[in-house]
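W.,

You were right to be curious about this one. When I first looked at the sequence I had no strong expectations either way, so I just let the prediction run and decided to look at it fresh. Below is the sequence, 456 residues in total, followed by the output.
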Amino acid sequence: MLTEFPTISQAAQRMRSGELTPLDLVEHCLARIDEFDRDIHAWVLVDAEGARREAERLAQLADEGEWLGPLHGVPIGVKDIIDVAGWPTRCASTLRTGHVAARDATVVARLRKAGAIILGKTTTTEWACFDPPPTRNPWNLSRTPGGSSSGSAAAVALEMCLAALGTQTGGSIIRPAAYCGVSGLKPGHGDISLDGVVPLTMHLDHVGPIARTVADLYAVWQPLAIGAHGSIDSLYTMKWARHDLEFWLDCYGANKTLFVVDSPLLERATADVREITSDAIQRLRSSVLVRELVLPESFGDILTWHKQIMAVEAAAYHRETFPAERSQYGPKVAELLDEGHSISGIDYAQALMQREKLRTELASLLGASSDLLGCLVMPATPSPAPDASTTGDPAFNAPWSYLGLPALTIPCGLSSSGLPVGLQFIALTMPQVFAMAGLCERILHFNDRPPLLEMI
């Protein structure tokens, strides 16, 4: 067992110096799984022997001077709606019994190409929706880890892997990362391939990493993003990904504005969350320019528009089995699909059209004509993790999934009940959100760990 669990960059340095091997990392992660997962339920499949074999193969390559990429020897978990060749993709649904993936999803193939070790599949909520999972929060077993990337966030928080893939349609990366006291990235829509990912919706789904630091998020994002699609968007992504995080901190982290979101939406925040995030922003004022930004009235219906798209597109995907197999669906998934069947085509079309209008309006507010663009900041969640009967409120995340804008959360403090609170950054581009979140992470310097780890 390692005395101190490294970040991805630390692990890379130590492996290149010979102080650490891929097998050391794999054994540490497997030991954590053995120790905690009977209570946490973060995993639905762990390929211990496969991970050990891959670690030995990667160690041999390293001995021969061959390094596959920035994730060489790094154990990573994959949410169980993402295909891994030869493994089932169950989506926490009995309707997927017997399924076996024929090939890796594009994101999994890219992780392997960068040297990652695919450790196993992490627990998801049913069909990546709202029915609570069996996973428990590492900070308090009576609380939810959030959904739907429940297992990914809990696994990272308890050192069961160095990073994990999640997906987000509403708030399913940012929310569980915040509840579990780690960092999470929802890239811009279309920045990372959805090939081989079981969809919830067409216009709102995103794949992104959960890890402990912004630098670790960047290390996983970079190989996923390079040339993800043959489109103009991917050309932007390729240009950004040629540089390391320090480059973006230097270019975008200086003389940049942090816009504190002011919106009636924030009335949902608890006193704990308001106090902790306000204190964090106050600490940032000595290093960055902080201004208030009032979201326009046109944002008032954004949660309704988001829900309409999600419901209609989810119903379209499940039309062959719902409502015919209604008994095989959880109550909250069924409720969403019922809603999708009831929404008119006109309302659905309007919800899609409003996205572009709001994106343009927000870009203007953030100063899109300037080289030094602004970054929004707000709480990642309305409250710390609630009880395990729910996956939590996605209201502070769904607007940015709807608009397809990059969002990133970092932990910024603990509530009066000892639960982590996240600070969320939203920007128009990936460099902006990485740079500002990375800069603020260094200032806030949150290092608390779940009590289960502190007891070891």
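Here's what jumped out at me. Confidence is low (pLDDT under 50) at residues 228-242. And, maybe more interesting for your project: Residues 235 and 308 are 31 Å apart (CA to CA).

Coffee later to discuss?

I.
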